[in-house]
Amino acid sequence: MKKREIVLVSIMGILTIAIVLFGYKYAAGKKEALLNEGEKQTETVSEVVSSQESPIAESDTSEAYAQFLAAFAENRSNASVVDYLQYVHHHTKEVNVAFFGDVASDAVWAKSAIADIQADYPLENLTTSFFSHPSDGSSVYLSSQYVQEMVASSPDVIFYTIPTKTDQVVDISLVDSTQNIYKIYDEIRAALPDALIVLMTPAPSEAKVADWNSRSLDYRNYTNNLVEQNAVFTVPLYDLHADFLAELTNRGETLPNLMDATGLELNEAGQKFYGEMFANSLRTKMIDTTAGLYAEGEKPAYTPIAPTLVVPEVPAVVIEETVEAETVYEEPVYEAPTYVAPTYQYVAPVTDTTITPIVPSDDTAIDQGTAVGEGTTE
Asked: Mind telling me which residue stretches traverse the membrane in this protein (predicted)?
């Protein structure tokens, strides 16, 4: 083969290889472009689908929540506190809960219960505050600024633990204790008309049971008296003291195992147990919430309770005085005695004339003879 032909063949080979390589590269580029276009179309479709589905989901949620709110508005005289908290949170975008009265400022049971419901319900903007006065009796609350201090925080819900344990120590009457507690309730309602106030009985205290005061009363008498009186009112009440003891029986548990060394306060296990009782009450106990916030409709008028509280009257003991008739002095009548001469009757003496001779024995005769002889002088 000539040299010229060899060069032509080489050039043709190179061109062929270049064309093949260019074809592969073009095909790959085209494929990548098509893939990219497909991905863009997929993303666009996804965005369209998502944009179409999102309003539907939000619409469904809004509708469901609207139905919940409507149901609550119709039945708020028999609703749970959790439902009320959601109602307030929906309308105000936040909710503030206060713990007031005979409660520790670092009450673990309260904090754990609030954390539990926050995890289960849409209550992300929920705050808590404590106004702790565990060592004061109900009369001190009335003469102090405790209510005003709490009012400054504008709570939406107030859990008011009644101070019956201290009333036991103060040694006031059952009537005074119950009236004072309702007076405090009236004072809070007057200052915070849109707040929901829930009365709560205190946690059990082993050391105070049967530690009677001079009236032969312990804190259970004061607590039970208020619970009985509250049966005729619509004041929301959690009787956690009774719930706690009842659940102890159900679980076969004893109170000393849940108390601290002094027997006055709950230990760690007791705090956890009490928190469970409180959280369960928030979810399940149906109370009258008409005293709280009204976002729509007319709020019922409120009549203070303390002035209308029926206080059992102690029947007056009527002491009947026995009036004795005055003794009239009557002058005695004297009669002269009549002399009656005595009558004497002679009784002759009885004489026994029969004489029994004494016959001396031989020994007696000798003795008598000797005696006679000794007395003779010759």
From this structure: 6-24
| Contact indicator for 171, 214 with CB cutoff of 8 Å | yes
Taking the C-alpha atoms of residue 119 and residue 279, their distance in angstroms, rounded to an integer, is: 12
Residue 184 contacts residue 191 (beta carbons within 8 Å): no
CB–CB of 200/152 below 8 Å?
no
Strands 196-200 and 237-238, by their bridges, are parallel
Question: Over the stretch 96-114, which tens digit does the pLDDT of each residue have?
Answer: 999 999 999 999 999 999 9
Cα angle 307-310-314, degrees, rounded to a multiple of 5: 120
Class of domain 79-296: alpha beta
Question: 359-368, pLDDT tens digit by residue?
Answer: 555 554 444 4
- pLDDT tens figures, 228-254: 999 998 899 999 999 999 999 999 999
Q: What angle do CA 161, 164, 167 make, to 5 degrees?
A: 135
Angle at 237 between CA 65 and CA 235, to 5 degrees: 85
Separation CA 263–CA 166 (nearest Å): 15
Q: Answer yes or no: are the C-beta atoms of 169 and 213 closer than 8 Å.
A: yes
Q: Are 248 and 254 in contact (CB under 8 A)?
A: yes
Phi/psi for 79 (5° steps) reads -135, 165
- Tell me the whole-structure pTM to 2 decimals: 0.68
Length of the chain in terms of residues written: 378
Q: Where are the domains of the chain?
A: 1-74, 79-296
**Is-contact 170 210, C-beta < 8 A?**
no
